[in-house]
Amino acid sequence: LTGELPFKSTDTLELIHCHIAKNPAAPAQIIPEIPEAISKIVMKLLAKTAEERYQSAWGLKADLETCLTQLQTTGKIDNFPIGQLDYASQLIVPQKLYGRQQEVATLMAAFDRVAGDGTNPTTTELLLVSGYSGIGKTSIIKEIHKPIVRQRGYFIAGKFDQFKRNIPYACIIQAFQSLMRQLLTEPTDKLQIWKNKLLAALGQNGQVIIDVIPEVELIIGKQPEIPQLPPTEAENRFNRVFKQFIYVFTQKEHPLVIFLDDLQWADSATLKLMQLLMTEPDSQYLLLIGAYRDNEVSYTHPLIKTIEEIQKSGISVNHIVLQPLNLDEVKQLIADTLKQTTEKVNSLAELIFNQTGGNPFFLTQLLQELKSENLLTFNFSSLPTGGTKGEWQWNIEEIKAIGIADKSAVELVASRIEKLPKATQEVLKLAACVGNRFTLDVLSIVNEKSPSETAIELYWALQTGLIIPLSESYKIPLVFDLEKSKIYSVAYKFLHDRVQQAAYFLIPESQKKATHLKIGRLLLKNAPAEEIEANIFDIVNQLNLGSDILIQESEKDELARLNLIAGRKAKAAIAYELAFKYLNAGLELLSANAWDNNYDLTWALYVEATESAYLSGEFEPMRQKADIVVQKAKTLLDKIKVYECKILACVAEEKLLEGIEIALQTLKLLGVNFPEEPTEEDINRALAETASLIPENGIEGLMNLPPISDAYSLATIQILTSILP
Ligand SMILES: Nc1ncnc2c1ncn2[C@@H]1O[C@H](COP(=O)(O)OP(=O)(O)O)[C@@H](O)[C@H]1O
Ligand SMILES: [Mg+2]
After folding, report:
1. Average pLDDT of 499-520?
2. Which CATH topology does 101-321 take?
3. Which DSSP helix (H) or strand (E) runs through 593?
4. What pLDDT was estimated at residue 482?
5. What pLDDT score does 496 carry?
């Protein structure tokens, strides 16, 4: 056509580089007489990524035939939009909501109430959206994103992950990360205002927030260390500072909408925080939207308890129970997808409606499956007048006969995955273990291949729509080898939890543990030492899922140590129940003679477990652990913490006498004797002793004394304060 090659070079390497990275000049640029349409067709064929090229030879043929017809009738080829029939031959379900006007209106009304219309006092509201998986909960809430932003509201969202329930606040962190990123894109002067507001609100306590949401540091900069506090005070501080933090964003000028998706998988720490935010008397301009699968939460589920508590405190709680699409809506969806009239798709729509019950996720998957089984085909046919037309065709009887419509949603998706190339299936299984969202760098680590190879393997899943890229940058590794310079962070998500679940189910039961273990080991191996703590939950969760099949003592000990780190981190984030879980998992990994062989680790795990059991109100397990420490710990000082926990638990359960009893015994061990029934004489003597200790320059002199450093005295004080309410 042009008489020359797309790239001219004698150097092989340069040629390869050109093919990978450079766009050739368009034919019409080289020879102006070449018609624009022909030039565009050639460029489409030369496109770097497969999705930009023609999807079928039929699509190309159709465009060429249009050219031919034009040439034959008018003697020249006019410019026309190419690739239209090629596009039509792909089964694309329109990205819009069918039905749901009422529900979307309810959501917007809640926002309007919270934003305040100037007449009513503003409020805080909780709005729940429940319904079966795939029914469209996430979609309707996403629908109000734009209108809310238009009204200057902030809309932030986070999603719980079915396989990541052990990460405290994961969903809230995700939501605020996106808010911080939104803020970071503001002009410098605006950003400075945010910085000042946040600093004013947080004072010296910024680090409390940074510890849970690291992104905040990008805005407010490094913050002073926060003093260690005893647990109850630490909890109060966390709650107070978090409220101050939220308050910065919930203002008349910009109300805040927080959308927490898939609350059925929420961790207990998040539920507590949710309750705190909602029931705070000063809270304002805040709308919390929560979506959950009602068929997966029973009335004893912690979520239901939390909702009840919020309701009891007089907060307005509204509830949308999402129903399946009705037959008319299904008809419309199918007609739009197949570009036919509703009459024409009538019987197909009825069949699909009956099979899927009007569940939109299920029915779009079913349509895709029908297509890949060639039960739904796009037929190109030549027109007698020249050119090509095409339309979707199907045979109802054939579809009924083959029984394809009898599969469940997960089976259907699983069978779609099984049609992908083997390597793609494998990488999807790994991704399913990693999470609902995953990044290319993590996936390529667990896939043990380069980012580019991994991206290419994933590409087939992207094409089926089962995986969705979270940004355009996913195209880069398809063309460039990123091995050395991972400058781009490429992230993806599963189309839906059901897809993740289906991929996960394809891992044979006997290999699940080994897979998690392998992923955990690779993550650990590839994390630089200073990043282990930051990623500790992800690493430990994978390893714990496979810990049953660990054999080597040294590796078990290592995992126990990692669980200790995870437990401490959860404890620092006031997620006591999770802390207890991690510590327990750590304890279970210890060998029978761990007290002798690995004293420090064993002792630390037991003591931390005792304390976190106490803090989460698990008094019986707490006592069991404490008793073991009392028996096994080497020194008296090593036992003080668990004595303290035992005393505090007695106080909490109003068993004061028992608490005093334990305290007196402990004090006796420390060499401090209190008489059980003090006499007049005892009291006078103690008073005299105290008076004699006051320095010559009076009470103030005490202030100038150096802080106590004697461990025994400190322990004594610790025990004494635990018993004095
Ligand atoms: N009203 C609707 N009309 C058309 N498609 C819908 C509708 N609601 C949801 N979908 C599609 O169904 C799929 C599942 O919806 P999603 O909101 O993720 O469900 P859920 O959050 O309830 O599990 C999505 O791919 C979405 O595009
Ligand atoms: Mg959802």
Report:
1. 93
2. Rossmann fold (3.40.50)
3. none
4. 56
5. 93
